[in-house]
Amino acid sequence: MSKEQIVIKVDNLRKSYGAFEAVKGISFSVKKGELFAFLGTNGAGKSTTIDILCTLAKKNTGDIYIDGYKHGDIKGNNNIREKIGVVFQESVLDERLTVYENILNRGQYYNLSKEQIQDNYQFVSEYLKLDDIKDKKYGALSGGQRRRSDIARAIIHKPTILFLDEPTTGLDPQTRLFVWEAIKRLQEETNMTIFLTTHYMEEAAVADNVVVIKEGHIVAEGTPDQLKDKYAFDSLHLVFKNTFSSKQWFKERKISYTFKNSIYTLRLATTIDAYDILKKLENQIESFEVIKGSMDDVFINIIEEKEVIVL
Ligand SMILES: Nc1ncnc2c1ncn2[C@@H]1O[C@H](COP(=O)(O)OP(=O)(O)OP(=O)(O)O)[C@@H](O)[C@H]1O
């Protein structure tokens, strides 16, 4: 299937809790097979939006299409549930059952045949490496093992779209990497669309597309590179030898900088521009560091409403 096919289309979605409007008319679309990162500060409206898309909560107004099905009526919502898998922040597996039993039960919920469930189990077990935990009770698992089981359960019916609400929060770095690699493999090898919320910007940095919401409004969207161009910058940090009159040097050349804790910071259009400056100053420098603009900068600058002007 074409990468350009739209699998999620949201138009002017609104959701209120009583008098409080949590989602204030957002519109966006997600293409088939992409890793889509839905970002925002705590309370921005991410979980509310996911709950609505997954048919677990009602919207107030707005049009939503998921994998071609219209969201909102019973038939459309039932069709949508067949096409999606969801991993919530809080686990929904039965603590008293084994991993295998939990996943099998879920397969039965989708009316899959025994053979189909077995085939699909092999598929999810390979991606989430379930062999060593298959017969363990879910309640006895570590946080990382639970996450692997949660994801496996969510994809036992091989959905078109997998919704992941902060899938790696609370995991140690090694487990986080393991879970993350499984998610990326699912996307790349099976063309599953991944709809992700995360507070880890290094995960957002490898997304195909990013939407950032703040207080229920979309405040930025684009590819990570597009967002970096607009909201982040590369910089050069310089520490000079005591003998060098650095401020005078910059003033004469009309170069802007910030100065803090003996470090001069210069904004760069690209990291290569550091080379020219370093060559001119090579005998005066005590130390230097070239720093690439990151998704952390992007997120902070978007939330603080600072667009970056490269000097
Ligand atoms: N059931 C509810 N009743 C009333 N207000 C709610 C309810 N659920 C969420 N809210 C409010 O709606 C807003 C959006 O919440 P939501 O959980 O969607 O944010 P979020 O972006 O997912 O945050 P987090 O990153 O902390 O998970 C918040 O102000 C929250 O307090």
UniProtKB/TrEMBL annotation:
GO molecular function: ATP binding; ATP hydrolysis activity
A Pfam family: DrrA1-3_C
Domain of life from the UniProt record: Bacteria
Family the UniProt entry places it in: Belongs to the ABC transporter superfamily.
Span of domain ABC transporter: 8-240
Protein name: ABC transporter
Keywords: ATP-binding, Nucleotide-binding, Transport
